[in-house]
Design brief:
Number of strands: 15
CATH superfamily of the largest domain: Thiolase/Chalcone synthase
Strand content: 25-35%
CATH topology of the largest domain: Peroxisomal Thiolase, Chain A, domain 1
Shape: globular
Distance between the termini: 19 Å
Bound molecules: oxa(dethia)-CoA
Largest sheet: 5 strands, mixed
Number of helices: 10
Length: about 325
Amino acid sequence: MRRYSRITGTGSYLPPRRLSNADLVRELAAKGVETSDEWIVERTGIRARHFAEPDVGSSDLALKASQQALQAAGLAPTDIDLIIVATSTPDMVFPSTACILQHKLGSAGGAAFDVQAVCSGFVYAMTVADAMIQSGAANRALVVGAEVFSRILDFKDRTTCVLFGDGAGAVVLEASDKPGILATDLHADGKHVDILCVPGHVTGGQVLGDPLLKMDGQAVFKLAVGVLEESARAVLAKAGKEPAQLDWLIPHQANIRIMQSTAKRLKLSMDHVMVTVDQHGNTSAASVPLALDAGVRGGRILPGQLVMLEGVGGGFTWGAVLLNL
Ligand code: UT7
């Protein structure tokens, strides 16, 4: 009998400080940066985002999301034998945020590591956890996307600072003879490093280069719509399914126009696309598990439904996970 991995609990957490577009526009105006609610809504669909307080790190957001997911799964932290955190904004250069999270959860002994695939991080982390569970290397995994992107934003650059937010989402994945994750599909093309990056690095106790996010938005946009369609079709083909059979598409939440375009290419109504970008902004690796948990807790995403998770982002990286909830 095939051994699958199945989601048995979801959770999420947003830091309490919520900034509507109007709040952000006001803060930016005080710094001499001009933008507007109209521009942000029309070009991105974003209406609000959450920012963590300066003393709150990705592991703190991850902890709250993980505790919710564990509670939903009816498990204790000590039941978990694998923790994978997808993040581009780790608490420290090392050790991993996953190790810090493990300790904060009050667990020890299982494997714990971070995955760095920027906005595709959660889809990458789910694929690795699924493979480890299928192979018998792990039985009960906690897979988390957690980010404090507010730390790496250039608040003088209006083309990027209005887009991102902070948050975390988590799932518990358990071994099961019932599906579960049906298929996964991951890709990267490193020639696109420069279109979305934080180019700085640490040397001799100092950050060398620029420690803030740089993005060529139009180049990212064009690549994103193409690869999201390709990856969606690839993962469906692997499982012998058609786009029309999808109950939910949960794409990375970067821009409503990218999601609409992906849905159109797949001939999928937007009623089958989970959208949280309006309230969360782009939370990078946290966006997919945040949207998944919002759908589950809101009673929209139901047990047994066919769900596709999709990520795309810096690297360039992209991929999809197809699963039965
Ligand atoms: O998470 C990883 C994946 N990331 C993404 O998927 C992001 C992909 N890219 C995008 O979502 C879009 O390209 C953006 C939202 C970043 C930009 O939207 P766009 O429709 O591609 O706008 P644009 O870059 O072509 O800029 C149009 C105009 C420019 O002015 P001019 O040159 O036409 O006079 C910009 O200077 O909008 C201006 N602009 C702004 N105006 C007001 C750029 N940012 C702002 C702003 N407020 N915040």
